Amino acid sequence: MDLNADLGESFGSWNMGDDAAMFRLVTSANVACGFHAGDPVTMLDSCRAAFELDVTVGAHVGYRDLAGFGRRSLDMSFDELFGDVLYQLGALDGVAHAVGASVDYVKPHGALYNRLVHDAEQASAVVAAIQAYDPGLPILGLPGSQLLIQAKEAGHPVFVEAIVDRAYKADGTLVPRSEAGAVLHDVDSIVERAVRLATKGEVVAVDGTVVQVRPDSLCIHGDTPGAVEMAAGVRAGLEAAGVQLESFA
After folding, report:
1. Contact 222/17 with Cβ under 8 angstroms?
2. Are 107 and 101 spatial neighbours (Cβ–Cβ below 8 Å)?
3. What angle do CA 70, 74, 75 make, to 5 degrees?
């Protein structure tokens, strides 16, 4: 099982999360590409850390929305979104290449991630950009999403993730952050959820429904308060359950 986290989200003098600790706990890092968060120095530091610790780098592409941390959905034309995704891939891959690392998969961020579950037009723009940049680049996302459906049709390797610190609805989508209880904080329950996902491929939704997920990767948000404690607990819990941790990409 892969364990991923959204990292490299600091910007200038503003720090987000404890990347130094998180890089030592995960097997894959979704590194911000400068649009929703991150900057060239942060990308450089993130790629160096990933290379030194043998952590796989993924491009965490998002809407051009630094002020909203990429969590506001934007209406964009095909070419606008195509260009923005292509720009982000090139930027992070160039930085990674300079320090001996590489971008080995793509995962959308925030509002873009959620929109690509149902928005076929935006999904087509994102997939087309990834296809134009590297036809064989793996894509990580929510099961059943338009993103993964179209990526698979285009010939990309696709991988499913489950997010252990977010609440789920009965249809397998995430409870919006605007709703109470959308973000989970209790470490013990998060660890229990992660182990159940890894060993049984299922998660309990907010209404009690058992949702089948079968993830290739488990995600912990690096910006969630207590993220390091959560990640350490999840890693220890998975290892205690006999789950081998390795990158999917």
Report:
1. yes
2. no
3. 160
